[in-house]
Amino acid sequence: MRKLAVLVAVMALVGLSVSTASADPGGDGRRPPRPPVTIQVLSVSDWHAQLDPILVGTAQVGGAAVLSSYFKADRAANPNTITLTAGDAFGASPPLSNFFEETPAVLAMNAMGFSADGLGNHNWDRGNAHLQQMIDLAEFPYLSANLRRLRENLDGVEPYEIFLFGRVKVAVIGLTNPEAPTLVTPGNFGTITITDPVRAARRAIDEAEDDGADVIVVIAHMGVTHFEGGDPNQPRGPIVDLANGLRAKDVDLILGDHTDVAFNGVVNGIRVVENLSKGATYSKTQLTLDSEGERVLSVTSQTIVPFAANVAPDQAIVDLLAPYRAQLAPILNTVIGNSSVAIPRTDACGNGNGRTCESLVGNVVADALRSAYATEFALTNSGGLRANLTCPTTDLATDFCPAFVSPPSPITAGQVLTVLPFGNESVTVTISGAELDAFLENGVSAMPAVNGRFPQVSGLCFSYDISAAAGSRVAAAVRQAADGTCTGAAIDLTTASTYTLTTNDFVAAGGDGYPNVLARVTTRAVMDQDLSSYVAANSPISPSIQGRIVCTTSGATACPVVVP
């Protein structure tokens, strides 16, 4: 195992002398005291190959070239720097990376100076063979300590890496989210299984300490899911469980990922930091050690919004991406249709990832699937919908859209691929009413937690009780009427009836916990082709929130609130 990655050894920062004689201000023959040592850790979370800036309000934020400039300035201020992320740095990516099988993302990460990356579920979107290609392309190590049968499937992944700064050894330990295999197409992990992250972390900590580690940093593809009672000091989620399962004396910093929640606080005596996804924020953490570099005295962390306007983008990365951009422009700039309203990923309850309520983009995609194959119903998982369908209202030089105009808002081939980056195929299947009920039950089973399995549907409307036990929540379902309203006939959710359904191959194969019906499906076109055809044939489209999914509660658990 490669144990050392020598980044920087700045002798002055660790108090080493290059002279046999030193100043003796006290006149007693003793050397002056060594200064403390500060190690800086830069990190992003769930980057998803967001090579270009995103819009936060009207401001452009992040992007590889912008982040690189911020990182360079931070490293100039403290050369004792490690730059980390904890998985999903590629996968579910915009076309500029996805179209080229993620090669631009890893090349950009090399240029941005990443020191190590973890492994999250989206790293396996294309299976082990593709992941191996990305590992081989990277100039930094991939880390995960809780993968069983790893060597049978992948080379070049280690449980941890040690970085040397003078006499200080910093160990970075990686962890993969336990549910990762259920979040990608079944079989993509090969024979790899995920072990308990707490036990794996403890074992890796012991090994790293045997290797002389003075500082322990854990990068985990796990995050904060919510805050108890809305209190930002009461985080909940897998990253909190991980911190509570470890000891403060063993771990100095945990960097989270996966859930697109900003958190910077102390859990069980351990500093825990998670950033917003796609480079919307990054963290700058300072670990200060004593003069001997043996004991961490303090850990402080800042959350930074990398506004593009505040720096000059790294020209080397701009140049690196230019050839890929030039290849895509003629294809993805094509306007295929338009909409009379903006079609965001954000759902009717204000969740930006569209995973708690009916959404406009979910309605359009589900309608497109049902229309393409004339099935009675359609269902797709919200986790597969990754962006707004209509072009942004603020012009970006890097997007695949024309200059903004008032509605009807244009929809381009590039926007369709940004919504549906996975290359999933549409499939049709005949199912019983009881199986349809199982699909719907699974879709709302994680509520109120935000989860990618949340369904977007077409042809039907249903209500569920969020306080009921998972698996027994769906109260009733009716067909959509011809005008789209939820006033049609009741749907029989028993084995006595059968229905035709269009979904995607990920859901049909049991992804996100859905019933596995893959053996019975008929495979159709690629989903983005069905969506493009629907937009082109029906423009201008005018989607609306129609009450297709209605939450009720019979107990203490509150429903998500629909935003007016």
Summarize the topology.
Elements: E1 4-6, E2 37-43, E3 54-56, E4 59-61, H1 64-77, E5 81-85, H2 95-98, H3 103-112, E6 116-118, H4 127-137, E7 142-143, E8 147-148, E9 157-158, E10 160-165, E11 168-175, E12 193-194, H5 197-210, E13 215-220, E14 226-227, E15 235-236, H6 238-245, E16 253-255, E17 263-267, E18 270-274, E19 282-289, E20 296-304, H7 315-332, E21 335-339, H8 360-373, E22 377-381, E23 409-412, H9 413-419, E24 425-432, H10 433-444, E25 455-458, E26 460-465, E27 474-479, E28 498-504, H11 505-508, E29 522-526, H12 527-538, E30 549-552
Parallel strand pairs: 1-10, 2-5, 5-6, 6-7, 7-9, 11-13, 13-16, 16-18, 22-28, 26-30
Antiparallel strand pairs: 2-19, 3-4, 8-12, 10-11, 14-15, 17-18, 19-20, 21-23, 22-25, 24-28, 24-29, 26-27
**Strands side by side in the biggest sheet:** 1-10-11-13-16-18-17
Q: Roughly what is the average pLDDT, rounded to an integer?
A: 92
Tell me the β content.
15-25%
What is the overall shape? globular
The portion of residues assigned to helices is 10-25%
Identify the CATH homologous superfamily of the largest domain.
Metallo-dependent phosphatases
CATH class of the largest domain: Alpha Beta
Sheet of most strands: 7 strands, mixed
Q: Label the structural class.
A: alpha/beta
Number of helices: 12
Outline the low-pLDDT stretches.
1-27
Q: At the third CATH level, what is the topology name of the largest domain?
A: Purple Acid Phosphatase, chain A, domain 2
Task: Compute the separation of the termini in Å.
Answer: 56 Å
**Total domain count:** 2
